[in-house]
Every structure is written in C-alpha cells, then in structure tokens.
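MODEL INPUT / OUTPUT PAIR
PAIR INDEX: 1
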Amino acid sequence: MKIVLFSRVPRWYSFKNERLASHLSAEGFEVVGVVVEEVPTVQALREWTKKLGFGVFAKKVGQRLTGKKNISSDEKQNQEIRFSKVPTSPDVYNFASHNSPECIEKVKELSPDVIVLRGCGIIKPAMLDVPKIGVINPHYALLPDFRGMDVTEWSALHGEPIAVSVHSVNKGVDTGTVLKSETIEPTAEDTVGSLRDKSATLAVKLLKEALVDLREGKEFPENQMNEGGRQFFKMHPRLKDLANQRLQLFSEQTGKISENNAKVKANLEIQN
C-alpha cells in the first residue's frame, strides 16, 4: 500500500527517520513521499512552543540536536507502545499550499492509496479525491464530542477524557468516521503540553493500526458525515492556564478524568 504523508513545517525540517514514516515502512507500507506546506520558521516555532509549552518543546529540541530517540514525555507510555522501526529517508516535496494546483498534480503523480495528514489545515475536495482509498487524520480528542482546534486543551478544561482518534477526512471539520480511538491516562505531572506530546506518540500507533485494517480489506467510510458534538476554536491563554490547573485538581482529587477514562475505554474497546 502506497502512503503519502502531509505535514506543515518549515523547509529545513528533516524527515530522515521520521517516527511515523519509519514505523509504517517497518510494517511494510511504501511511504512514497512527504508533502510539506511550508510555514515560516518564526511562525512554526511560535506555534510549537504555544502547543507544547516551553519545557516540553525545549526537551524535544534537545533530543533532536543530540540524536536521541524521539520519545514522548511519558516513559511508561513509550514502554507500553513499542514500535518496530527501520531507517527511512522519504522524498520531500515543498509547496506553498496543500491545495495548490501544483501540489495536487504532484500527489497525483505519486498515486497514493492513502494520504495521512499530520497537523495540516483544511484539505479541499480536489485533493481529497486524489488517493485511491482516502485520507485519514489523527485528532487529539474524542470524536464527535470535541471537533476543531486546541481540543486537548478543551477536553482538559471540561474535565473530559484525553484521547486520540484517527478518522476519515471529508469536506467537514473533523466530521469523518472514527477508525481508531484510545484514551490517555493523565498523571499528576502532566500539562496540556505534555499530553499533546503523549498524543503524538499514541497517534503513530493508531494510524498504523488503521492503515493495517484498510490494507486487510476494511471498507473505507466514504462521504459519511458525523456532525454531532461541538466545534471548538483556538483557546485563549488564560483558559489554557485554567485547563492546566484543572488537570492538577483532578489528579489531586482522585481524578474525574480517570473515572471518565475507564468508562470511555470500555466503550472504545467494543467499537475498535
């Protein structure tokens, strides 16, 4: 099965031995290219720092500079989610927009079975129609409850389970069918930034599982619209501070999030 990864990073960003590409290659998938929508360096650094928090961001930069493995902030999670890896150096194609005519033509040339999105903006129908099977995306919350942006933060603020959902992509905003979903158990040390880091690790596992299912013949849910739940938008910094405070409060009081996680996990095991 031929896979194209979509990403949104500066031109200098290296995909050599990139985590998802490496694990997919080890699983027998053919990663035929990474298609990048370029963003300015300053903008990217600002976004990464805002999402992860300075401490988690600095740790990850240090890992890259020293050549250490790209691991999440939770050592236990990294032990539980074990991946096979192979060295990879996929071809990278840079464009001003994932929806530009030039980008669409290049992706048609690559002829992927599936496009996998990683931190991208809205993909328009002309691109969604290119892959033979479809487009999938990891979303850092339960769907359809939390659609839109900053959903790890909004989940924490509402005291709801922290989760990752891999879903099919259609013309709506996170309205595709959920293919895989799993919750994350927060610790007393967690922030929304560290939970985003853990979500990135879990997303690799769930994306691989979803692609294996498709390779083995699972039907892709084309054009199904699941518009339930609520759509969320960028969170104000003051609300993000409150979300972090609530994470700490829940962990100190035996955890509303943990209790909800147990209920949701049981339901997800049935669905998956």
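PAIR INDEX: 2
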Amino acid sequence: MTLPAADTSLAPATRRKPRKAQRILTRLRQELRVLGLKFWQPDFVETHGVKLWLGAPMLRKGHRRQILRDQYEEAEIGVLDGTLGRDDIVLELGAGIGLVSVFCAKRVKDAAQVHVFEANPNLQDALRRNFALNGVSPDLHALAAAKQAGEVTFNVDPSYTSSGLHGRPGEATQRVQVPAAGFEELVERFRPTYLIMDIEGGEIELLPGAKMGSIRKICLEVHPEIVGDKPISDLVAGLIDAGFTLHFSRTRKNVVYFERTAAEAGQ
C-alpha cells in the first residue's frame, strides 16, 4: 500500500512563526531595556556579544538607546560577522568606544593581531575600560592615520561620532593637534589582511592611490553627507582598479565591503 505524501503546505509558515515570535520577543526585551533607563542605568550592558560601559561620559542618550536596541554599529557587525576569519590580521582606523575592536579581538585567534587606532583623546579611557570588561587586549594606539606621519589637526566634536580629521566642524568643535602614523607604513609594519575604517570622511584622503599591500578585505563606512558622492565614487573605482570586488550582498547602509584574492593582492 502506498501512503499518501505528507502535506507540507503549512511547513514554511510553521517554521516562520517561531522566528517571528523570536523577533518580537527580542524587540520587546530591547524596548524594556530602553524604558528601564528612566529608573536605573546599569554600569555596563551587552550588545552583539560585547560588554560596553554604558556610563561612559561621552555617550549621549541616543547612543545609549542604540546600544540597548542592538543598533549601535549594527551594520559593521553584520559585515564582520560574515567575513572576519580567525586567521585575519586586523587594522582598525577609528575605533570609537571599541565595540568593533572587541568583536574582532574575540573572533580572531590572537587579540594582539587586532591593531586599533583612535585619535580622539577623549575616548582612550572608554576604550581601555571596554577592553578590560571583555577580557581582551587589542593592540591600541592613540594615533590618527594620515598620508604621512607627523602631527595633524583633529576636530573633537561634543558628539564623538562626528569627530575626525575631516569631520563636521561646528561652533562647539575643538581643534586639537594629535600625532599621526602614515597609513602605508602601518600596512607595511602590521601586514593586515582586513582593514576596517570609519574616519568620518577621511577615507577619501587616505585611500586613493595608497599601496594596499597585504590587505584582502575592507569594511569601510563612507560618509557622503560630509564629502559628497563623487569623491566616494572615485574611491570605489580606485579600489576596484586595485583588484577589489565590491560585494553588494555584504554591504549594509553606508558600510561597504570589498574583497580580493591573495593573488590579486600580490601574495
């Protein structure tokens, strides 16, 4: 006797329901955490598997809400989660408060192979505290990255996410001199395979024409609202000419992902 085939017409919907319920529960948990800020602020919270110092003085209300909703650096983490390997050597320019730095340090097999550069003097304590909270020790440098080593003018904005060499100077912006390392010298010294860059428009000055050496992967946040579309288009064209492929499937919001093979990198 032949048994009738099982009716699978409801199976996809059945599988979708738990996922939808999980998303609703996750969103509810996030909103409860945000609501709880009105009554109590924890010293630290966890987002994307990383503990962050929520009481850091440079964090504004909007930053804290993003962190509690798992939206802070969400695009970068999404790209890295699918592309960062255990054997990668990371060069991160523009670390902020260190969420991406810690994520990388926990993913690669040796945290000392995550070379972190942050020029903003107001972020150094938060970076070190977040590293300690997570028990990791990336290679931290309180330096900017520029075409040439030396001193550069850095715009320190009250909102640290708007600070940078290029930046968006406003009335409350402080212009300070900070030491800088030469980008090509960093590539030659550390021989990174993965470049992560979020430097508020500085990418259009740093990357065009630069020798990329050992770099095979790039996670780059672009800033058209600061520098315009044409300079970014030229930057993308230059990276493609250097053998990189722009992966649209990996790109999220203004965070774009490039990759090339070891052969294309001349290795």
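PAIR 2 NOTE: The chain has one domain: 72-259.
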